[in-house]
Structures are given as structure tokens and as C-alpha cells.
Design a protein that fits this description.
Elements lengths: L2 E12 L40 H13 L3 E2 L2 E2 L1 E5 L9 E5 L5 E10 L2 E14 L3 E7 L2 E7 L6 E7 L6 H17 L12 E11 L9 E6 L2 H20 L7 E6 L4 E7 L9 E2 L6 E2 L2 H9 L5 H12 L3 H8 L2 H16 L7 H19 L10 H10 L6 H14 L3 H8 L7 H14 L1 H8 L5 H12 L6 H20 L1
Parallel strand pairs: 12-13
Antiparallel strand pairs: 1-10, 1-11, 2-6, 3-16, 4-5, 4-15, 6-7, 7-10, 8-9, 11-12, 13-14
């Protein structure tokens, strides 16, 4: 029997506010801050304290909801979601249940099969839990609780089960991450856990309209983990059904090392949490004027930016999407293009700048783990390098110069002058170098003339070495071809 995959995603994004959702404790970096540095009686769940709603968190949530074309509720209500966990100090989580912040949105994704619309069921506000660190030492296992994250504003975005392939699930997650980053409400740093995915995965016979039993895979913090865990569950569920068994609804974790899911608990239903309106928080009333102020303040979103970059600068879709996925990357690109135009730099088209960014620059960012905002170079300096790579220095030298720029912050011009890296384009000088290499390698030339034409590449490398890597490749290729043709003609005589 053929089966169809059905996937829905719940995405939890920490909102980049200065303070927590219901108190004035600072939101601190989960990596650099010491444990339990940013806690108070409110987020620590002490008796007799009163929470207060963070207006900035509400506005950030509205920004995301409007970007997803959701309907903002005039009144939403915070509820207590009751469950016990060691890093949940109150014994309940303040969330939204029956009356969320927003509902009925959509997100257009692009895959190899074209564009698809994924429906958004709801967007709601809640607070994050703390963090547990599990330790085993000297044969004794124990856990430590860090409440720095407890009470941090969290936005949950729930899709409908509209995704039918792993590619669609990944494209949806990537598109959503790009949106929250472009809105500047979340850094998108998955390694730090500020955005986390939970996949609801099921299968059903092809053609069936009835949803199969789903499992929920919790706390996925990379696109690769999302794909691998979902693929594993699809295979497991199909195997279970083919063997005559039944899929059990449960909550699963993902072991990335072993490449398999594992059971955490049976899947809870809403009634298991005993939701009820939080008596300490009044209904959240959002006036239409506030909604409109937020709507008109929205920046250009990634999908619109992608289309504009394609049309305005003649970029291909892949480069445009890569640049538009981060507002700072797109800003750097457009500033570099503008600097090249001001400098009237010949030979620098926007496509050339995009190629250097998506290739060499993004490669360095990925390897260093830094963001484009942390670059020690300016768009003007980057445009200067790309201009130099069109003739003043060759491509290998330009890549080396970029590496030095990124490590020192120096400009391309200074590095090229200090190290004497200007490309040699003097045709007479290059002709002399070619003659010298051919004269010094008589046997290799005979082998070339006897039919081993791949030696032409070897000769090219020898001449480039003699030129200390600074020969203009186009001039060198033309001169080498000319002298080899002359040698062949002499041999024919």
C-alpha cells in the first residue's frame, strides 16, 4: 500500500524583548550568563506575586501574526496550563488556549515542485520554562535547574497539517525563521534554542481524507534534525501499519547521534492540562488603532524581498533567496551595490557582488559562526575587493585578500599595496615566462606534442608559479595557447 505523509509544525520562538513576559527581569544570553542570574519572585513562582503583561512582547507577537496574514483577536485571554516539571517553578505555565492572540493565517513556501500555501492555525503568547542540566558524576546522576529562561516571552506558531513532504516541512521552517529574523523579533539562533520546532507526523493510505494517528517530536533545533526525525517516524509508522499494528499517539524526543526517536510520554490532550483563565491577568484588549500602527511599520518581508532582488538586480532565485533570508545580509548587499555604483566600478554587476557574498563571504560566516553584523569590513570595502578581483588581482589572490580583510579589518587596497599583489597583465612579461617554462621542460613539451594535451594545464600551473600567482589568467591562457600552437606547427614541419 502507498502512504501519504502528513506533517504539521509547532514553532516556539523566544521574543527578543529586554525583559521577561510577566516581570521586569532581564532576558539574558543562555550561553554567557551564569545560572539563575536573572530571576525574581514573579518568574520564580513565589506566592503572592502578580504578573504584568509585557507590551513589547505583545507588539512583537502582533508583528509576526500580521506578517503571516493572521486575524488579530480584539480580546485574547491568558490561561494557566497546569503540569509539573522541575524547571517550571509555578507548577503551571501562563499561556493562551481558547482565545489566542491571532488565528487563520497563511505562509507561502517555495519547493522544487513550486509554491504552496501552508495554513496557520493560531499564533499565541506564553512564557518559556527554565532549563535542566543533567549530570552524571562518580556514578551518581542528578539534575541542576537554571531559571534564567523561565518567564522569557515565547511565541507559539501552529500550522495546520498541510505539509506532505519533508522538503515542504523544511521549507516552511526556513521561511518562518526568515520572517521572525526580518521582523527583528528573534535572532533565529537555533543552536541557542531561541527558536525550536516540534513536528506532528502521521501517515495515511494514499487518497484517504482521514488523518492518521500522529506523534509529536519535541524540541528540534536544526533543519537537519527536523528532516531526519520526521523521516525516521514516517518509516516507523509505515512499518507498523504494514505489520498490522497501530500507531500510538505519544510525545517523542530525537537522539541525533543514534538517528532515532525515543518515547518521552503518552501524548496529552487539552483536558489533561486543566486549562483555566489566569485570575491574576486581565483580558488582553488590542485596539484596532494599535493593530494598524503595527501593520504599517512592518518591513519588507523575505518573499517580497526575494522577488524584488531578482527583478531589480537581475539575480537568480537561489542567490536572491539566500540574501533575503536575513535583513542584514540583504542590507549589506544593497549597500555594496550602491558603493560600487558611486565608485563607478567597471565590471561589477550586482550579480558579481551576490556571487561573492553567497560564496566566499557566507562560507566564512558559516565557518566562523559569526553573523554578518559582526563583520570587521564595510560594504564599501567589500565592493572594493570585488572590483579588484575584476583585473587588479586574480581570483585566488582575491580570496586570500578577503580572508585577510576578515581577520584584520584592513581594506583590500591596503593589503594589495602592502603585499605587492597586483595582477601581472603585461603581455610581453607573460610571454617571456611562458617561453622560459617551455624551454625548461623539453620532455614535457614533447609529450604534449605527442598527444598528451592535458599537460597544457600543467604548463599553466608552472607559469603561474613562476609569476608568483599574480599572472592574469586570461592573458596567460591566450599566450600559452599561442606558443603551444607555434610549437605544434614547428613539429609538423
Amino acid at each position: 500500500m502507498n502512504y501519504e505523509t502528513v506533517i504539521g509544525l509547532e514553532v516556539h520562538a523566544e521574543l527578543a524583548t529586554r525583559s521577561k513576559m510577566f516581570c521586569d527581569c532581564a532576558v539574558v544570553d543562555s550561553v554567557s550568563a551564569g545560572p539563575n542570574e536573572a530571576i525574581c519572585p514573579v518568574c520564580a513562582g513565589m506566592p503572592g506575586v502578580l504578573p504584568v503583561i509585557n507590551a513589547q512582547a505583545v507588539e512583537f507577537g502582533m508583528r509576526v501574526a500580521l506578517a503571516l496574514e493572521c486575524e488579530i483577536a480584539p480580546t485574547s485571554i491568558f490561561a494557566r496550563k497546569n503540569y509539573f516539571y522541575p524547571d517550571l517553578p509555578k507548577g503551571y505555565q501562563i499561556s493562551q488556549f481558547e482565545y489566542p492572540l491571532a488565528e487563520h493565517g497563511r505562509l507561502v513556501i517555495r519547493t522544487s515542485q513550486g509554491e504552496r500555501v501552508i495554513r496557520i492555525r493560531r499564533v499565541h503568547l506564553e512564557e518559556d520554562a527554565g532549563k535542566l542540566t543533567h549530570i552524571t558524576k562518580d556514578g551518581v546522576s542528578y539534575s541542576l535547574v537554571d531559571l534564567n529562561r523561565a518567564g522569557v516571552p515565547l511565541l507559539e506558531i501552529v500550522s495546520e497539517p498541510d505539509m506532505r513532504t519533508l522538503e515542504e516541512a523544511k521549507a516552511y521552517a526556513q521561511a518562518l525563521r526568515a520572517i521572525v529574523r526580518s521582523l527583528r523579533v528573534n535572532s533565529g539562533d537555533m543552536e541557542k534554542g531561541v527558536i525550536r520546532f516540534e513536528a506532528n507526523v502521521s501517515v495515511r493510505p494514499m487518497g484517504s481524507e482521514v488523518l492518521g494517528t500522529r506523534v509529536e517530536i519535541k524540541n528540534l533545533n536544526s533543519f537537519r534534525a527536523l528532516e531526519r526525525s520526521s523521516a525516521y517516524q514516517v518509516e516507523q509508522q509505515i512499518a507498523t501499519l504494514e505489520a498490522g499494528g497501530k500507531v500510538v499517539q505519544e510525545t517523542l524526543g530525537w537522539d541525533d547521534t543514534r538517528g532515532e526517536t525515543y518515547s518521552q510520554r503518552s501524548k496529552e490532550e487539552a483536558h489533561d492540562y486543566r486549562y483555566f483563565p489566569d485570575p491574576d491577568l486581565p483580558p488582553l484588549v488590542i485596539e484596532p488603532e494599535w493593530v494598524e500602527r503595527v501593520r504599517v511599520s512592518l518591513p519588507e518581508l523575505p518573499r517580497a524581498k526575494t522577488l524584488r532582488l531578482e527583478q531589480q538586480y537581475g539575480l537568480n532565485r537561489a542567490d536572491a533567496e539566500a540574501l533575503a533570508s536575513d535583513y542584514a545580509q540583504a542590507d549589506f548587499f544593497e549597500k555594496a551595490v550602491a558603493e560600487a555604483a558611486v565608485a563607478e566600478a567597471d565590471g561589477i554587476s550586482p550579480r558579481v557582488i551576490a556571487n561573492w557574498m553567497t560564496g566566499e563571504l557566507f562560507g566564512w560566516l558559516n565557518q566562523s559562526g559569526k553573523s554578518i553584523e559582526q563583520l570587521p569590513i564595510t560594504p564599501a570595502s567589500f565592493a572594493e575587493l570585488v572590483q579588484a578581483a575584476q583585473g587588479e588581482i586574480n581570483q585566488p589572490t582575491a580570496k586570500a585578500v578577503l580572508g585577510e580583510m576578515l581577520s584584520t579589518g584592513k581594506t583590500a587596497g591596503n593589503i594589495i599595496r602592502e603585499r605587492g599583489l597586483q595582477q601581472v597583465s603585461d603581455s610581453d612579461l607573460i610571454a617571456g615566462l611562458v617561453r622560459g617554462v617551455l624551454a625548461a621542460n623539453v620532455q614535457a613539451l614533447k609529450n604534449y606534442l605527442a598527444g598528451k594535451e592535458t599537460l597544457a594545464n600543467w604548463f599553466f600551473g608552472q607559469v603561474m608559479r613562476a609569476a608568483k600567482g599574480q599572472a592574469n589568467p586570461q592573458v596567460l591562457h591566450a599566450e600559452l595557447d599561442r606558443q603551444l600552437a607555434e610549437a605544434r606547427a614547428r613539429g609538423a614541419e
